[in-house]
Specification:
The protein has two domains: 72 residues, no CATH class; 99 residues, no CATH class. The model has no long low-confidence stretch (mean pLDDT 91). The longest helix has 22 residues. By secondary structure, it is an alpha+beta fold. The protein starts with a helix and ends with a strand. It has seven helices and four strands, in the order ααβββαααααβ. It is elongated.
């Protein structure tokens, strides 16, 4: 199984060694398959997260790839991207299921909040004085609070507004979930 995967990566890379070839690849897309019907190009079955990877030099794409195979690249940047994608799907499911989303480590991380800021998820408006950075800092400060019982009703409203008006639309646009067919 792994030999097939390694061969596909090297054959579709400019470099001809594994160590050099893995540096050419990046994550292009990710979707979640709730029915677990897809198999990785390596042969592993029942994938939940279906990644498409692309070679930046040859433009060749491989799909579907499981996160375990991407982790075989041993690249911190790709591992971090996998972790962010899985958090994004977790939040999207919670929003779609109308679950209460608390600003804690169940759904969020400092890296995820930074990801949202870096990807322009927070919009400039009169509530943040025309600076989306203020929303990022607000969420980061609340996330870092040791005692979440001290969060005011207005802070809770602002958190919910940011999740529903900024984060949810971003997730719906960015992520694709394959639903189980009836």
């Amino acid at each position: 199984m792994i030999k097939i995967y390694v061969k596909k990566i090297i054959d579709n890379s400019h470099a001809k060694t594994w160590d050099d070839a893995v540096l050419e690849w990046g994550i292009y897309n990710c979707e979640e398959d709730e029915s677990l019907t897809e198999s990785c190009v390596c042969g592993k079955e029942n994938l939940r997260y279906l990644y498409t990877i692309i070679n930046r030099i040859t433009n060749y794409q491989l799909h579907p790839i499981g996160s375990v195979c991407i982790k075989k690249f041993k690249r911190g940047d790709l591992n971090a991207e996998i972790a962010i994608n899985e958090q994004l799907f977790k939040i999207l499911k919670a929003v779609e299921n109308k679950e209460y989303i608390s600003l804690d480590s169940k759904y969020f991380s400092k890296k995820l909040l930074r990801y949202f800021y870096d990807n322009d998820v927070f919009q400039k408006n009169s509530y943040n004085n025309g600076d989306a950075y203020n929303d990022y800092i607000f969420l980061l400060n609340i996330f870092n609070k040791r005692n979440k019982d001290n969060i005011t009703a207005n802070q809770h409203k602002k958190i919910n507004a940011l999740i529903l008006n900024n984060i949810k639309p971003y997730l719906k646009q960015k992520l694709s979930i394959r639903k189980k067919s009836l």
